[in-house]
Each structure stands twice: as structure tokens, then as C-alpha cells.
Specification:
alpha/beta; Spore Coat Polysaccharide Biosynthesis Protein SpsA, Chain A; UDP N-Acetylglucosamine Acyltransferase, domain 1; 11-stranded parallel sheet; 9-stranded parallel sheet; 9 helices; 41 strands
Length: 466
């Protein structure tokens, strides 16, 4: 489709969203609603995408340019909301030099590039003038109905508000995706009238005009109704997101991933999961998370922007953000990896352990109730329960270094900047404010003192006071 410009109609106010945010910027599976048809058009091979914008135009343009930095995107303006025909005409200059135009409603997040390729085939078979995507649905609702002639060819599209009772019972509906020759399309659009219930200029009148000129109108009927899901309010937004997540879960299961109760997981389409990995209910994966093979991701874990190696065991209710876990790592339950943290191969973090901008070395362990912030831990070190790196003095952050083979006793405070040397020991309950040499033992406890007879004297005092 290198000779095709895609025109995405995204100028609507979206009043039913009841929001100050432009409709196209409401998130579906981690990305703005309008992102998805743009992505599908690029996947299909369209060389340019023109996004017709209106309300919140600057925000929409800024968002899409950031998400598609190398793409040929243009943003025609529709200053007045005068219908789909008028919106398409606003993109006329953007279509200059292209033989074909692919028209897409911007509130259809479940479309795929493969669907546009199939539409191109229907377009060619019907004579190469015009084709559209249709779907057969149980509840046609507010969709335009497809009226076919006695030979089964598409004759016209009737909007619901203009439909007769008999036409309202038609279950084949217009999805809002069209492919047309540009030299036919734009002259016809310029002559579209507003003789309808809402006095708008309907793009769908083009079908009748094509047929009146003796031109064929092709149709690609979707194999299922999911891709036809349209977003007009937050209820439909939630339904579309659920369908997108379930579709991706099915794709992952077909590729060799076990997902327990797939309807309960939220794995965004830009996330990948390797073969023989097991995903338990309630898991979320966002922002391009990559999970390797033979992993276990326990119930309720939330992963965002993380890279997980092979053979990693993530126990229930861990939260990982913008971090890396190398092969054979173990986490949780209830572990928290904050941004810029790295767990090297075979390292372990246990229950209620938090890492922030920390590298935990190969084979090292922090198994209980620990906070490591701005910290570098070498190989095969052991961090005892209750250890805290005191990395912040109220103004600046400072680093802590724990070298290979070091042992940090329970309930230790490491006041940064500080270094614990190779194979050094820190006794339980220590407050470390100076570097510990290699192989040394650091102890800072107050000597234990016994006060003999203390309990008996306290009891006597209470008795004397009645």
C-alpha cells in the first residue's frame, strides 16, 4: 500500500466521554485511542498518515509525533464539526500525489494492518474504485446499516437515525473504514449534501454516488465482531481495552505461554512473553515489558517497562518498574523494584524488599524486609533482614557499595556514602558510617548491660502506690 495515504478522522469532540481530555488521547491498553488506527495503517504499509484533528489538536499532534518519530504524519485541521465528508475533505492536500486513500474512523482501536490488506484485495476484485469494511454483529446499535441489492452487492449505507424499521433490523453494519481512488473520492465528497436527520455531510453517501456512476463497491466482511468495536464513551472504552487484552492473551497462549484465567490478566499488546512461561491471574504487564522463557509470574504481579530473563520466578504481588532481572532470578512475594534497578543472574530478593536504582550482583541475596537505594552490590553477597541504606540526607542522594562476598547482618543501617569491602562482615544491629575494609568485621553495638533485681524493685514500687 505504498501508493496509499491513510486518513484518520480524529477531530470529534467526544462529548460522551464527559472529559476535558481529547477523545483520541484516552488510553486503551497503555496507548492513546488514536494511536491504534495510526499504527495499523503504518503496519499495512501506508506511506503517509494524515490525522484530521480539531478539539485538542496540539495535544493529539504532540502525542502522535512522540510515538511515531520516523513516520510521515500530517495533521489537517477541521475547525467546524460538519460531518465525516467534510472532515475527509480537510485532508485533500495531504492526499496529493497518492493514487488511493484509506479512510479510518479514529475511534476504532482494534483494527489491524492485516484487515487493511484484506480490504485492498476486496478493492481490487470489485474494480479498484471503492471498497469498505463491514461486520455482522448481534446488536447493530448506532452503526450504519449495509443495504445490499438483489445480487448481493453493496448498494448503500443507511445511518441508523435515517433508517426505516426494516433497515434497523439489518445486522451487517458499516465499520468506518474505506479505500478509494483519490481522483474519484475528493470530487464526489465536494458534492455531498446534508439531506439527512442531523444536517451533516455524510461520507457514507459516497457509496450511493459510486453505484450511480456504475462503479463497483467492494466489501471486506470481518471474520468476527471485535475489530468493529467503536469507542464513544468510557463504557465502550473499557470494553475495547478488555477485548484487546484478551486478544493478546490468546496470541500469547497460541505461542506457548500458559495463562491461568486469561480474562483476568492485563498484558498490553507491546509486551512479549516467552515460551513455557506461566502467568497467574491478576497479572499486569505494561510499557513494553519483555518476559523470557520458562518464567513464572505470580498472581497480582505488576510489571511496567521491565526486561525479564529466562527462568525467573516472580512470586505473587511483586511490583517492578523500568528495571531488569537477568536469568534465574527470584523475587517476592511482595518485592518492589523501582526504576533503574538491576538484578543480575541468579540473584534473589524476598518478601518486602525494595530496590531503587540498585544493582544486585550475580548470586547475591536480600531475602527479607530490606531497602537498598542508590546501591551497588557485588557477587554472592548476603544482605540480612531489616538492612537499610540511608542514601538521602534531605538534600542529596549518596551511593553505597557492598563488594563481592560481603555479609550484612540483620537490622543494619548503612549511612551513605559508604563502602563495605570484599568478604567483610557487618554485625547485626550496626550503624555503619565509615568504610569497612576487605575481610574485616564491623560492630557498632552498645555493650549489653544487666541491671540485677530490676523487676523486683519495679513490682515493689507499684505495690507501695496501691
Amino acid at each position: 500500500m505504498n501508493d496509499t495515504v491513510a486518513i484518520v478522522l480524529a477531530a470529534g469532540l467526544g462529548t460522551r466521554m464527559k472529559s476535558d481530555t481529547p477523545k483520541g488521547l484516552h488510553a486503551v491498553a497503555g496507548k492513546p485511542l488514536v494511536h491504534w488506527p495510526v499504527q495499523a495503517a503504518l503496519d499495512a504499509g501506508c506511506r503517509r498518515v494524515a490525522i484530521v484533528v480539531g478539539h485538542g489538536a496540539e495535544q493529539v499532534e504532540s502525542s502522535l509525533r512522540a510515538r511515531f518519530p520516523g513516520a510521515d504524519l500530517v495533521f489537517p485541521r477541521q475547525e467546524q464539526q460538519l460531518g465525516t465528508a467534510h472532515a475527509t475533505l480537510c485532508a485533500r492536500d495531504a492526499a496529493d500525489g497518492f493514487a488511493h486513500a484509506l479512510l479510518i474512523n479514529g475511534d476504532l482501536p482494534l483494527l489491524t494492518g492485516a484487515t487493511f490488506q484484506a480490504l485492498r484485495e476486496a478493492f481490487a476484485v470489485s474494480g479498484g474504485a471503492f471498497a469498505l469494511v463491514t461486520s455482522v454483529v448481534d446488536d447493530p446499535g448506532g452503526f450504519g446499516r449495509i443495504v445490499r441489492d438483489a445480487d448481493g452487492a453493496v448498494q448503500r449505507i443507511v445511518e441508523r437515525r435515517d433508517a426505516t424499521p426494516a433497515q434497523e433490523d439489518i445486522h451487517e453494519v458499516n465499520v468506518g473504514v474505506y479505500l478509494a481512488r483519490t481522483d474519484l473520492l475528493f470530487p464526489m465528497l465536494a458534492s455531498v449534501g446534508d439531506h439527512n436527520a442531523v444536517k451533516e455531510f455524510y461520507f457514507t453517501d459516497i457509496v450511493t454516488m459510486m453505484r450511480a456512476r456504475g462503479l463497483g463497491v467492494g466489501a471486506y466482511v470481518l471474520p468476527g465482531p471485535d475489530q468493529a468495536m467503536q469507542v464513544n464513551d468510557r463504557i465502550e472504552l473499557a470494553a475495547a481495552e478488555a477485548a484487546m487484552h484478551l486478544r493478546h492473551a490468546r496470541d500469547l497462549m497460541a505461542s506457548g505461554v500458559t495463562i491461568h484465567r486469561p480474562a483476568s490478566v492485563l498484558i498490553d499488546p507491546d509486551c512479549t512473553v516467552g515460551r513455557d512461561t506461566e502467568v497467574w491471574p491478576g497479572v499486569e504487564m505494561h510499557a513494553g515489558t519483555r518476559v523470557g522463557a520458562r518464567c513464572v509470574v505470580g498472581r497480582g504481579a505488576v510489571l511496567s517497562g521491565v526486561a525479564i530473563g529466562d527462568g525467573v520466578d516472580i512470586k505473587p504481588y511483586c511490583v517492578l518498574t523500568d528495571s531488569t532481572v537477568e536469568d534465574d532470578g527470584k523475587l517476592g512475594p511482595f518485592s518492589h523494584l523501582r526504576p533503574a534497578s538491576i538484578m543480575r543472574r541468579g540473584s534473589h530478593v524476598g518478601n518486602f524488599v525494595e530496590l531503587k536504582k540498585t544493582e544486585l550482583g550475580e548470586g547475591s541475596k536480600a531475602n527479607h524486609l530490606t531497602y537498598l537505594g542508590d546501591c551497588t552490590v557485588g557477587r554472592k553477597a548476603n544482605i540480612g533482614a531489616g538492612t537499610i541504606t540511608c542514601n538521602y540526607d534531605g538534600v542529596n542522594k549518596f551511593p553505597t557499595v557492598i563488594e563481592d562476598g560481603a555479609f550484612i547482618g540483620s537490622d543494619t543501617q548503612l549511612v551513605a556514602p559508604v563502602r563495605v569491602g570484599k568478604e567483610a562482615y557487618v554485625g547485626a544491629g550496626a550503624t555503619i558510617t565509615r568504610d569497612v575494609p576487605d575481610g574485616a568485621l564491623a560492630i557498632t553495638r552498645v555493650p549489653q548491660v544487666h541491671v540485677e533485681g530490676y523487676v523486683q524493685r519495679k513490682r515493689a514500687q507499684r505495690e507501695s502506690k496501691g
